[in-house]
Design a protein that fits this description.
Elements: E1 7-12, E2 16-21, E3 26-30, H1 36-46, E4 50-54, H2 61-69, E5 74-77, H3 79-88, H4 96-110, H5 120-148, H6 151-181, H7 183-192, H8 200-209, H9 218-225, E6 230-231, E7 241-242, H10 248-264, H11 266-277, H12 282-303, H13 309-312
Parallel strand pairs: 1-4, 4-5
Antiparallel strand pairs: 1-2, 2-3, 6-7
Helix pairs in contact: 1-2, 5-6, 5-8, 6-7, 7-8, 8-10, 9-12, 10-11, 10-12, 11-12
Length: 315
């Protein structure tokens, strides 16, 4: 006698978790520390093949960590993937219970890969890196406003810019301290920064937002970041490729590093020059450098060996 495999979807909100199994059982629990044990006990009894939650920014972490610690298979997925799947099956309505049911069906159909959750140190570094990017965005906005601001508000804007810069300097110190206090982070940071064109900002972004670096093969890591070219062949259209999806904040940091590398890193400079000579547009050549760079960094982290231009040329 065979047992039917169950898949579970959990729609996450700030206050509640809506749970639905692939065979239609549904219930709701509070999204609170005191309710995680009961949720884990009930789901362990069902012995699900896979539990899927959407990434919400932070509200899913409590449940995902508790379920993972209970020995259950948990995948945290991109909400865009799930919405695309919902549209593909004609599910246009959206409520918490419907979303949980769609997640359960998505789990059964797509079987997303289970990856380890970031540890506390990585989540703390991620929070600092994200906050740094927010401050940079606010600084850019205030600098733009200052150029056209009337005299009556210029003093206020300048004061705010000064405060933001002090906050940014303090945050940079906090990030550096977090990395330097952790032997593991420090070793990884030194490996990443051994590559010409990778500085503090790029290295810390990768440490915080791409913990899978060094654990995947080159195709997987390029696709995860969003720099892997995908075919766009249809009808008479042939030969076009484009990158899509991935982690935007990682890609932004990688773009800046590749831009510097196309001028100062010998491997990337040679690649960029070869593609431009072949007639490729600058943006296409730069994306190729981004892909090459993440593959090099992935190999460095995998092998635990610093930058070597002779090895990088064939990475």
């Amino acid at each position: 006698m065979t047992t039917e495999r169950r898949y579970v979807g959990i729609d996450v909100a700030k206050a509640t978790l809506d749970v639905c199994t692939s065979d239609g059982e549904a219930w709701q629990v509070p999204n609170a520390d005191g309710d995680m044990d009961a949720l884990c006990t009930r789901l362990r009894a069902l012995q699900p093949e896979l539990i899927v939650l959407e990434a919400t920014g932070s509200y899913e972490l409590r449940a995902a960590a508790a379920l993972g610690a209970a020995g259950l298979q948990v995948a945290v997925v991109n909400p865009r993937q799930v919405r695309s799947y919902a549209r593909s099956i004609g599910q246009l309505a959206k409520t918490d219970r419907i979303d949980a049911r769609v997640l359960a069906r998505f789990a059964e159909a797509a079987r997303p890969e289970v990856r380890p959750l970031p540890d506390d140190e990585t989540r703390a570094l991620e929070a600092l890196v994200v906050r740094r990017r927010q401050l940079i965005g606010m600084l850019a906005a205030e600098d733009a406003r200052l150029k056209t601001a009337p005299a009556v508000t210029r003093k206020l804007i300048k004061a705010h810019i000064g405060w933001l810069r002090r906050q940014l300097a303090q945050l940079d110190g906090d990030i550096d301290g977090t990395v330097r206090r952790s032997p593991l982070f420090r070793a990884k940071d030194d490996l990443l920064q051994s590559v010409p064109c990778v500085g503090d900002a790029t290295s810390r972004t990768l440490l915080a937002l791409l913990p899978e670096l060094g654990t995947l093969d080159e195709k997987q890591i390029a696709a995860l970041v969003g720099v892997a070219p995908f075919n766009q062949d249809s009808g008479t259209l042939r030969g076009r490729r484009r990158v899509w999806g991935g982690r935007a904040r990682v890609r932004t940091a990688l773009y800046m590093a590749a831009l510097v590398g196309s001028r100062h890193n010998p491997t990337l400079k040679a690649l960029y020059g070869r593609l431009r000579t072949a007639g490729k547009p600058p943006k296409v050549a730069l994306v190729a450098c981004m892909r090459k760079l993440i593959i090099i960094l992935n190999a460095i982290m995998r092998d635990g060996r610093p930058w070597d231009p002779t090895r990088a040329a064939v990475a």
